[in-house]
Amino acid sequence: MVNTLTASSFATTAQYANQQNAGMASEDDLGRDAFLTLLTTQLTNQSPLDPMDNEAFVAQLAQFSSVEGIKGMQTSLEDMVSGMRQDQMMSGANLVGKKVSVEGGYFFGGNGQTSSGTINLPNGADSVVLSVYDGETGDLIYQETQGSKDPGTVALDWNGLNSEGERVQSGSYVMTASVTKDGQAQTALVKTLAEVKSVKWNPQTQQLSLEIGNGTYVPLSSVDSISS
Fold first, then answer.
1. Hey, which residues does 132 pair with through a beta bridge?
2. Which fold, 99-227?
3. Where are the beta strands (DSSP E) in the chain?
4. For residue 129, what are the β-bridge partners?
5. Rounded-to-integer distance, Cα 125 and Cα 219, Å
6. If you count Cβ atoms within 10 Å of the first and of the last residue's Cβ in the chain, which end, N or C, has fewer?
7. C-alpha distances in angstroms, 228 versus 50, 93, 115, 193?
8. What whole-number distance in Å separates Cα of residue 93 and Cα of residue 108?
9. What is the pTM of this model?
């Protein structure tokens, strides 16, 4: 005598598909062992009246193989990115103690020593005002008005003295420049040579940042030149 089979005793193909979709939507990852266990259980308990189609079985295996391949590729990419980051950190460590040309006018100077910066004037200028500020307090240390400048790169020098001609202590300073052309005043971007104090990895920009004094960091991509 054959026992009567009920739909609730077995998972139909449609029910199994719903279970698969619910499992994929959950937060828990379905590993290889869990997938094989689930598939074996499905095959063991499938309804003889509604067995799993061969096409559905093959499709599920193919889908799992694709997911496994993607996960393996993701792991390989993460390992490659980690290796590249380590290589960049090792290369960045070689910059410590060297001077790099960076935008923003940051530099370490004072004590009567000459510090230099440059500005780019594609149209020239009627006058240029050079200002030097204390990098920690923001106080104005020195200011000088220069005459007209021809188009091109213009060098700016500071002798390490304040506006009264007195030596200032060695430390972090910021150099700025204001340019006047045809009666219009505007700020010119100053590039200076700054010594690299340390390097660190910036997870937001995914690149190295260089400390150039007083806790100021600039991205490696902003460096124009490197000197010893």
1. 142, 175
2. Immunoglobulin-like (2.60.40)
3. 99-103, 106-109, 115-121, 127-134, 140-146, 152-158, 171-181, 184-188, 191-195, 198-202, 207-211, 217-219, 226-227
4. 145, 178
5. 30
6. N
7. 78, 14, 15, 10
8. 20
9. 0.55
Tell me 151's DSSP state.
S
In the chain, what are the domain boundaries? 7-92, 99-227
Report the 10 Å Cβ neighbour count for 205: 11
Q: pLDDT tens for residues 99-157?
A: 888 888 888 889 999 999 999 999 999 999 999 999 889 999 999 999 999 999 999 99
CA pair distance 46, 76, nearest whole angstrom: 38
**How high is the pLDDT of residue 69?**
66
DSSP-assigned states of every residue in 162-215: -TTS-B--SEEEEEEEEEEETTEEEEEPPEEEEE--EEEEETTTTEEEEE-STT
